[in-house]
Amino acid sequence: MTRQELCAALDAQLAAAQEQVCVLAVPLAGGVPLYERGAGRRAVSASTIKVFILLAALDEVRRGRLALDTPVAVTAEDILPDTGVFVDGPGMHPLEELLVWMIVLSDNTATNVLIGLLGAECINAAACSVGTKNTVLERKMLDWDAVSAGRNNYTSAEDLLRVFRALYAETVLTPELCALARSILRRQRDTRMLTRYIWQDVPCAHKTGGLDRLSHDAGVFELPGRPYFIAVLIWDAPDIDGKIFFTSKKKLAVGQYLPVHVDDVLDYDLIGSAL
């Protein structure tokens, strides 16, 4: 398939999509995009904003205001119900550990502690330092009161390209800190999106983001000699969460309640059988 044929096929498919979709696939070093659609559109960032928090924290290390081993308190009040890390309660953790959990597991408790440590002004200044046009942090993770009040976090595919390019070209931080940032991003454990159907062993430094009716993923596929940046931002998607597909030996009526045994999972859906 030629690039022109690929673009035409993607254009047709995305034009028929119910959700809002922005796509950018481009050589990391620059040049003609393989595909681009709405790359400059501003979107709610979800957890992709955490790449900019990572940049801001490491820049504070560069400036000598923090160190990777700086102990940071995680209090009982900081710990959110969705954490998979801080299940043993409050404690002191080195800065680098919080950065790892924020990216690798997208832990919101670690993220909010880092936002509190750095401040929104510091994080937004770091985003501006790489030339962003649509990126801003206005709230902590899971702060739905802030969302209701009109404050949210935003970015775009182009802005995500800018921060990844800076980390790979090492035009920010120091070479050692850029290497650390890339190493952390390569350890991302969410493989449900961009890397889902990549069967080859291709290193990918990326960050996902998800909310109800929103799924993002952006990062660098480190192909030998020709790394590519790819971002796909999706929002206002049809509500596909919470479905349970099951079989029953009995005839059922619409609206009937019954217990179901969950036998398997398929992405966001559950597969079960009626008891």
Protein described:
The strands form 4 sheets. The chain has a 5-stranded antiparallel sheet with strand order 2-1-9-8-7, sandwiched between helices. A 3-stranded mixed sheet has the order 10-12-11, with no helix packed on it. Strands 3-6 form a two-stranded antiparallel ribbon. Helix 2 crosses helix 5 and helix 2 runs antiparallel to helix 8. The chain is globular. The protein is 32% helix and 23% strand. The protein has 275 residues and is an alpha+beta fold. Strand 7 and strand 8 form a beta hairpin. It has 8 helices and 12 strands. The model has no long low-confidence stretch (mean pLDDT 92). It folds into 2 domains: 220 residues, DD-peptidase/beta-lactamase superfamily (Beta-lactamase); 31 residues, no CATH class.
